[in-house]
What we know:
The complex is a heterodimer of chains A (about 200) and B (about 180).
Chain A: H1 30-55, H2 62-73, H3 79-100, E1 107-109, E2 117-122, H4 123-135, E3 140-147, E4 151-158, H5 163-181, E5 188-195
Parallel strand pairs in A: 4-5
Antiparallel strand pairs in A: 1-2, 3-4
Chain B: H1 2-25, H2 36-41, H3 48-71, E1 78-82, E2 88-92, H4 93-105, E3 110-114, E4 117-119, E5 124-132, H5 138-157, E6 164-170
Parallel strand pairs in B: 5-6
Antiparallel strand pairs in B: 1-2, 3-5, 4-5
Amino acid sequence: MTPPATSPGYRWGCPQRYPHRARRFWSARRVPAALVAAVVLGASGILLYDVVAVRASRPAMSWRRRLAHELATRPLDGAWATGCAAAAVLAGCWLIALAVTPGLRGLLPLRRDTPDVRAALDRAAAELVLRDRVMAVSGVQWARVDVGRRRVRARARAHFRDLDDVRADVDGVLADTVRELGLARQPALSARVGRARC
Amino acid sequence: MLRAVNRVLVGLAGLMLLALGTAVLAGRLHGVLLSTATRHKWRAHGWWWPTVIAVLSALVLLALWWLLAQLHRRRPREVAVDCGDGGTVAVRGRALEAVLEAEAGALDGVDRARAPLTGRRTAPGVRITLILTPHATPAAALHRLQEEVLAPARTSMGLPAFPAEIRLRTVRHRAERVE
């Protein structure tokens, strides 16, 4: 589909220049945030409960005495401390990566032709649309399309017609359909067509 | 807003873990992490335990707020619609969502739609998920949504802008030859 000729991107008749950049969708990172919040809440809550209990002259829970003992006796160059430190480094790197990357890799941003509408197409949906179109090429018996974020790979098997003709048709259909999807970033296309085993 | 808070706090937690881990691995910290002597050093001061309790309480409250903020999504309960004669009418958010969902769901090529509102009472937005029928053209459905649902909604509410985030999905279906 082409946007209407009156949309601002079509001024001066240059359809490839769109006025609003389509950026990626950024995840709200609810799940990692909830996990970190739950861990902080649990740890500080239990510690608070125990500290207050001790202030009210009740005995400290055994785990706290044990933890204080471990912290005071385990040497920092022992296997335990090294293992825990390595785990902390890994978890820290993972959380930092989550914080600075957009996420939502399954969403392909679409071109924007109005400033207040942002849209994205699920990669799975793009796969289904492309597969259906490739299946409609005459001669194609089976087709499968993998849509990556930068690359579209199609595989098809033909059960009649000349393979080169089918390949040319599949290439054409793929290029047309990808253009019709209106993606903000044109993916690279590749298609492999083979002969169906009878 | 929540997205920025989440990312800053998650990143901060990551930095703290990373700093502690690398300090231990690089051998910057010697002996043990928390010796009995260090632990006992502050206990003699009168302000120590009240401070610990205050800091822990603040941490518990903040973590609780943060956790609860993940669980519910903020939607405007009502939207102020300009009548054109200087007055405004409050429209229930749920009613508006239902109308948008029904209109979007009735579009050609759309199986069903969800449309939770976002933003504020005076400046609402919407986050739409369209589930497309098999063999629908996504760009065409998106165009129809803009022209037939979003633009009329914006003008009928008298809003200067009605920002929309749209996500297009498709009903799973088997490959079949369409003759």
